[in-house]
Structures are given as C-alpha cells and as structure tokens.
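EI: anyone free to look at a 287-residue chain?
SC: sure, send it
EI:
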Amino acid sequence: MQASRTPVQLCIKREYLIVLKSDLQELPAESVVFCISEDFGRCRILETSACKCPLQYSSLVFFCRIEAARCPDVVVAQIDPKKLRKKQTVNIAISGCQPAPEGYSPTLKWQQQQVANFSSVRQSLNKHRNHWRSQDLDSNVNMPKLEDEEGWKKFCLGERVYSEIDAESDHENLGIDYIKVGFPPLLSIVSRMNQATVTSVLEYLISWFGEKKFTPELGRWFYALLACLEKPLLPEAHSLIRQLARRCSEVRVLEENKNEEQVSALNLLICLVSRYFDQRDLADEPS
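SC: here you go
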C-alpha cells in the first residue's frame, strides 16, 4: 500500500515545518529540519545532522528546491574601490569624436573611396609580407626592442621631431639622414613586425600624439600600423584606435590655420577607424 503524501505541518512561530509522511519512515526527524515561511518562498535550515539512510528521489528533489530557495536572487561582491584604483592601468573616455569644423566634413563618397583604397593596401601587404620580410635591411636600420618606447619614437619620428629641433637648421646637410628625420614605414620594416609589436608601437605613438602636434611622419606611421592590424581586433588594439580617432578629432578642431592637407590626413584616420574597423559611433557625418 502506497504511503500517503499528505504533509505534516508543525507551527513554530508563524513558520511551518514541512515533511512528507512517506519520508518519515526513512528520515529521522532530527536528521534535517527545514523551516519554511508562510509564503513558501524563503526558508532556512534550523538544524542538520548526518543522515545515514538513503533519500527517496522525491525527497531529494524536494530538499534541492528548498536549498535553491535559500539562495538570494542577486549576489553582490564586496569590492574595495581603493584596491582597484591602485591597479588601474587604462583610462577610456566614453565620448565620441568631435564634429568636423564647418566646411571640412568629408563626403560619404570620399570616405567610401578611402576605405576601398585601404582595403587594397591591406590585401597587398598580406600577399607580399613573406617576400618583404625576407629582404635584407640596410645597415643603418636598427629596429628597437619591443619594450623600448623612446627608441621607437625616435625610430619612427626621427630625432628632429622627437627633440623638437627646427628643421631649418638641417638645410645645410645634403642627403637624407633617417636618424634625424625618422625611418618611413617601409614594407621591409613593417613586414617584420608581429601583432604585439604593431600594437605596442601604435600605443607609443598615440601617447606621443596625445601631447604633441600632428606631423606627416606621424600620419604615415599611423596609416601603416592600421594596415598591419589583424581583424578581429584585440581589446587593446580596439581601445587604441578609438583613442586615436578621438585625438584626431580634437586636433582637427583646434587647428588654427585649417591646413587642408593636415585636416584631410586627420579625416582619413578617423574614417579608417570608424568605417573600416566598424567603430561607427566615431564616424563623421557626411557633408
């Protein structure tokens, strides 16, 4: 004869002790005591002791449901903000790009054309990377180590830009001194850079650009490094290119003489970040 499933209710301070009659034969009363409130939602264990007798499946499910009901709906970790503040290494601004000055906003057609050209450059670079990587570098090309931030700034920008030396003082020197004017992003150079190097050099130059003016040398390297970035972007690269686009928009607004060539270069970098790398919230509205 099947045991009755009628629950036994024992009133204890407006709470009810619920145990199925069929379980009483196998579960000693002192083994597990559950206290359930009137709404049958919240519950707590009053007393537990080792139970040596096996549970029936229905009892196990019943007690599992009670255990689940004891867990809070939302758990909030206790975090000390002071500890996080000490380890903070990246500050990310959430604002978008500043709009282009009146009359300098690029057209949608121009932006689409630049994206198409940039895509062709990337495809060509990937196709011929192994060839250019195998070419010998000139004897005066000494690529800095990955962690040498100042060395990379001098390598890319030259000592003249790095030290802010007046270019007119070098006019008497004939020929090109790449140590002074910086090495251009030749294919034989950028093809040797892995993704860690590309990301690090991009970070170094963006850091420089955050405090210095925009120069043609800087623009050439930004374009080349963006062409070397592999998709999908790593989180660090994603943050860096957004930082680059925002800085370009700031410099574009602050440009006093509105040099068309320089504004066009800044527009190009913003365009590539926003439209090729899909950061559409940073894109310029077509004029």
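EI: The first helix runs from residue 21 to 24.
SC: 👍
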